[in-house]
Design brief:
3 helices; alpha+beta; 12 strands; 4-stranded antiparallel β-sheet; 6-stranded mixed β-sheet
Length: 213
Amino acid sequence: MTKIRSRCLKQAPFFRIYKISRSQEPTNPMREDIPCHARKGWYVLNSFKGYEMTYDAIIETIKEDKTGLAKGYAISFLQEKFMYLKPKEDLKNLINSDLSLFEEIQKELLESSEPIEGDFVEYEKGKLARISRLHKDENIQLSNKIGVFVSVYGSQASGCTWDPEVEHENIGISDLVLTTKTKKGTCWTFSQNLSGRDRGINFEIDFKIWKKE
């Protein structure tokens, strides 16, 4: 069975269409497919009984999520993966699965005894910025305008790795002392730990706080 996204069908511009042989004409009681008049031999996925994942249902599920993680998905990813294709419960299961992934990542990063990109540094009393680059000469850059990719193997910052609003003297890794405090920081990873278009999820997890000696 071959699927393509419908781009020109006036009767169903946001539905999927697919082609099947005559011997495979739709008989699944969960579906009520209709012939696609624009393409002979193709069928439009008209509706799924019990598959209530409309656009509004996706938005509703995002609003119901108390963790805030659901807001970090690209809406195009959720539409592609769930809209009219899977039940609402599957989206909730994905959210819980990715929440567990972030919890695992947070645990691994907090257990690291070395500074990592995304960690916070109190470079002056009461002033915090995030490590945006760890240089080979052991100097570091600080910024509050970065994106941070995280995984169980580490982290990597991108974006505005040099932030003119963060004024500080040269700081080396040897100047940092680990505190017992943590701070929520924005970061992202791939849903289900699988890379791909629109699969990135933005979320906040705890990062270590370092202090300049």
